[in-house]
Amino acid sequence: MYVITMNEVWKTYPNGVMAINGIDIHIDKGEFVYVVGPSGAGKSTFIKLMYREEKPTRGTITIDTEQLADLKERHIPRLRRKIGVVFQDFKLLPSLSVYENVAFALEVIEESSANIKRRVMQVLDIVRLKNKARFLPHELSGGEQQRVAIARAIVNNPSVLIADEPTGNLDPETSWEIMRILEEINDRGTTIVMATHNKEIVNTIRKRVIAIEGGRVARDEVKGDYGYER
Amino acid sequence: MKGRTFVRHLKEGAKNIGRNGWMTFASVSAVTIMLFVVGAFLLLIMNMNAFADSLEDDVELRVFIELTADEEQQDELETEIAGLSQVDTVEFVPREEGLENLIVSFGDQGQVLEALREENPLNDVFVVQAEDPQQTQVLADEIQTLENVDDVEYGADIVDQLFSVTNILRYAGIAVIAGLMFTAMFLIANTIKITIIARKREIQIMKLVGATNGFIRWPFFVEGLLLGLLGAVIPVSALSYGYVRLVDLVEGTPELGFLTMLPANPLTLQMAALLLGIGAFIGIWGSMMSVRKFLKV
What we know:
The complex is a heterodimer. By secondary structure, chain A is α/β, with parallel strands linked by helices. Chain A has one domain: P-loop containing nucleotide triphosphate hydrolases (Rossmann fold, 3-Layer(aba) Sandwich), CATH 3.40.50.300. In chain A, the strands form 2 sheets. Chain A has a 6-stranded mixed β-sheet with strand order 6-7-8-3-9-10, with helices on both faces. A 4-stranded antiparallel β-sheet of chain A has the order 2-1-4-5, covered by helices on one side. Chain A starts with a strand and ends in a 9-residue tail after the last strand. The mean pLDDT of chain A is 93. By secondary structure, chain B is α+β, with helices and mostly antiparallel strands. The longest helix of chain B has 42 residues. Chain B is elongated, with a radius of gyration of 31 Å. Chain B folds into 2 domains: 184 residues, no CATH class; 94 residues, Alpha-Beta Plaits (2-Layer Sandwich), CATH 3.30.70. Chains A and B meet through helix 2 and helix 3 of A and helix 1 and helix 8 of B.
């Protein structure tokens, strides 16, 4: 049972840039996949297509049970609730505390406050930030902020976690810590798709590697390596 | 939407007021200043209007009855005048009373006229008031054609001028208020827009975690409403207080006796309702217009 399927997907931007040129991908439930490739090769667009920030020009994309190509504007929130997204720049709400940032993803689906409290404390425990629940984002280190973002992404038990360069802004030490947490989440059954430039991580924690070059899948290896100089 | 979500939106909207301290201050100040000006003009124009109305109400027709008319014919004429559609009141002033008034109005020189008491040269008069003072001239022409009417007089020149002045005042007043409100709307909407643009990123993040447009919009709706109402508080209280004091002052100063001001009681309440309404509307409109732009992510 595939949780992510892409069929002959093409994406051409209105300005004429051909970012994705015919991609077929199947990702199983519970997989951990690295997406690698040089800058400007279409990696970013590939990730954006998955959480429907961008719409494919041609082809079909299925995430969980959602058909993304013909997903109506007003149903995008439904998709976003089934997936968690983590970004390089964390994208936390600066005026909300750690607790409130994570709780926000549950308030959106009108969860009861008792459930919100229980779930938020659970995920803050997973990312080991229970003791900083009342802090504001700017009072935390980069690694801690990324852990908050991860907690927010997994708080409503998504089947897929999409991470766009989650360690891009972090020092090596902190990056490993983030990876440990992502692996832990993956062990609980969440599918993870992670775009990255971090050669060491890809070559050390061996997982499936999809390399994208020129908008096409150049390589797709189970337990692959990074394959680029940097 | 569940009840607790609604409560959340209310709370969130109220919290945003505090969280965005300076932006709130800027928006509320803009609302305050504009509503202050609008409110002050409103009070001024309402009073000018009332003053014009009272001047107009003083306009009356004097219908001079033919000297030859007997009592029966006079009664007949009175019924006829009273029966005209535009007539509000008809009052009979016998020639003796007319002369008396004349003598009194001449004061010391009135003595000269005393001699006339023997051979009163004046006509009996009907004093007529039109329902709509602006229709006085039409009414005068109509009465002129009736039988046993010697002449109709209403100070045509002065009255016509008065009406043109009061009409200009009225329309100018409405134009000024409308213009001010229009300017106010744009100024305030712009200020609110700036405060929301500053939160563009915030809105995008909300969308990324799966918030629906409605979910994002509600707190902004509440915030806009509160901004508008907050902005109305100072102008409403300051202008109400000021107006009450002004009315007291005018009424306590005999030299200003010719100025009749509208009573503070209904007027300040009406103004308060209007300013609160405008404030709320502008606040909501401004924030809805601005948030709309960022919802397409």
